[in-house]
Amino acid sequence: MNGNSNGFGGAAAAAAAAAADYIRRHHLHEIGENQCSSALVKHIKAPVPLVWSLVRRFDQPQKYKPFVSRCVVQGNLEIGSLREVDVKSGLPATTSTERLELLDDNEHILSIRIIGGDHRLKNYSSIISLHPEIIDGRPGTLVIESFVVDVPEGNTRDETCYFVEALIKCNLKSLADVSEGLAVQDRTEPIDL
Fold this sequence. Notes:
single chain, Abscisic acid receptor PYL8-like, alpha+beta, about 190 residues
């Protein structure tokens, strides 16, 4: 995360240091011998409450996750709740069963664990956290998503991390697009004719 090439080296270095601190505090994973782990960062030009309103919806990940076609939650939305996710075609999976591990509305942290499904993401666990920041003079959100997962037989750590990171990057880009679109709508004032 070297941001010195944009002329704002001090601000970029401070942002990178803040992200590293948030990762140390909120993204602790126990990594086994045959597992890989990573953390990805996304800056979104929308305030934390708006972004959180999408992320916290364990029951509606399809609001911003483009690979999810359908989601059904069993029981109330609480720690331990299970959701059955249908995956859109084109990916090497059709379903995933996931458990809500943490939903912290004060700290803006959500954690899930995949406990079943027809895919190769065994022992997958992720944490996503949202943190306020200022982007272009407006309230923005620093989103960090980290994961740990088993490396499937026949794959390397690098291959596994690359695949999962690509999925998360796609989800984070979609989260940014949806959030920023909603933020622009909120800032738009009616035109008097």
